[in-house]
Amino acid sequence: QKVSVEVLDHLEHLALVDFRDLEGVERLQKAIQFADQLHEVNTDGVEPMDSVLEDRWCLYLRADDVTEGNCTKDLLENAREKVEEYFVAPPGNIPLLKLEERDTFLQGS
Questions:
Q1: What global pTM score does this model have?
Q2: pLDDT above 60: residue 13
Q3: Mind telling me which residue stretches traverse the membrane in this protein (predicted)?
Q4: Separate counts of helices (H) and strands (E) for the chain
C-alpha cells in the first residue's frame, strides 16, 4: 500500500519527521502494513480497557529513591539547544520539500 503525498505531508508536520528519502517512506509503509494486521482481530463484544492491568485492584508504584543528583549542568551539556535550564526538543523544524517536489520524489518509490 502506497502512502500518498498528502499523508506524508500531514505526518511530517505532526511528528516533525522527515520522509524525504526512500528509506523513510519504506519504513513508514512497513509500519502501516504491520499495524493493518490489527484489523483482522475480532473485537466484537470486547469492552475497551482502562489499563492492561485492570484485573488488579491496586497498582503499586515503586519507591522513588533519589541516589544521585545535582547534575543539571552536566546533563544540559548534552543538549544541542537549550533555553534557560530546559532542553529544546525538537531542536528546530526540519525544512520540508514542497508538495510538488515530494510528489516527484515519490514517483520513484
A1: 0.40
A2: yes
A3: none
A4: 4, 2
